[in-house]
Design a protein that fits this description.
The protein is of the alpha/beta class and 272 residues long. It has 3 domains: 88 residues, D-Maltodextrin-Binding Protein, domain 2; 77 residues, D-Maltodextrin-Binding Protein, domain 2 (3-Layer(aba) Sandwich), CATH 3.40.190.10; 78 residues, 2-Layer Sandwich (Alpha-Beta Plaits). Helix content is 28%, strand content 35%. Strand 3 and strand 4 form a beta hairpin. The chain is elongated, with a radius of gyration of 21 Å.
């Protein structure tokens, strides 16, 4: 199965995709929009995308792309994010003057940079991409922060493992397929939805009360602005279900108060 990811080989998305789809052929994409274009255009069979990080929060662009494309979420998986200081083989920490990585990764390693005041943190487009760049440039004064898989993939060396500030660092990934080919897990006990409500007092409360009336447990809610319509919002929610069939009742209940409701996917909750 061909699976698109955003980022270079060796990125955390690569690791997540290999865990979610055994034997997958990974198709790296530079941008998230390219991931969805590859999926909807038929160039790949599925995509694996990060949807939220336990420290940095939601990947908001991916909510918008899930709404705008005819796709469905079929599975979720949390991945422990372990940041490592990586450089060319034989380089020592004291040799480094600059370290590259994705800005989110750099922000999660502030204690390392506080302890190494002479090392400058420099933002880069991708964690694994930063390792690739270091190895291609051959600069022994520049390091990277990425996964140990990225170090192995590009022939680099881990100088320090686990340099993240907080070990409770997890990213939740979604497995996404084209809606026409998506078959939800019969044991699905979670659903992701997008909906909009009228801009009047109590409209959001009324919608949420419908969920409460069904005994549905709301585990996440996120709001995003509607493009081109200032001060109007789309709400994204995750709900725990007692059974796969309950998702239909949830959509129907929200429809009483919402101008738009879209089921983004139903899947089995994964807390491993």
């Amino acid at each position: 199965m061909k699976v698109a990811i955003q980022g270079e080989p060796g990125a955390f998305s690569h690791e997540a995709a290999m865990r979610m789809v055994a034997g997958a052929e990974i198709v790296p994409c530079a941008l998230s929009a390219e991931v969805f274009a590859a999926l909807t255009g038929g160039a790949v069979d599925a995509a694996v995308i990060p949807i939220e990080n336990s420290l940095a929060g939601s990947v908001l662009e991916h909510f918008d792309l899930l709404l705008d494309n005819d796709v469905k979420v079929l599975a979720e998986m949390p991945l422990r994010i372990r940041h490592n200081l990586i450089a060319m083989p034989g380089v020592k920490v004291e040799d480094l003057e600059r370290v590259l990585s994705h800005p989110v990764a750099l922000a999660q390693c502030r204690k390392f940079f506080a302890a190494h005041a002479g090392v400058k943190a420099s933002g880069f487009y991708d964690t694994a991409g930063s390792v690739k760049h270091v190895m291609e440039a051959g600069d022994r004064k520049v390091g990277a922060i990425a996964s140990d898989a990225a170090a192995r993939y590009y022939g680099a060396e881990v100088l320090q493992a686990g340099i993240e500030d907080n070990p409770a660092n997890f990213t939740r990934f979604f497995l996404v397929k084209r809606a026409a080919e998506a078959v939800s897990d019969p044991d699905a006990n979670k659903v992701s939805l997008a909906f909009s409500v009228e801009n009047r007092p109590g409209s959001l409360v009324a919608a949420l009360n419908e969920l409460a009336g069904l005994g549905t447990n709301l585990t996440k809610i996120e709001s995003r602005p509607v493009q081109g319509k200032p001060w109007q919002y789309i709400f994204y929610v995750d709900c725990q279900l007692r059974s796969n069939s309950e998702a239909g009742a949830v959509v129907e209940a929200l429809g009483k108060h919402c101008g738009m409701v879209k089921e983004l996917g139903r899947y089995r909750e994964n807390r491993d």
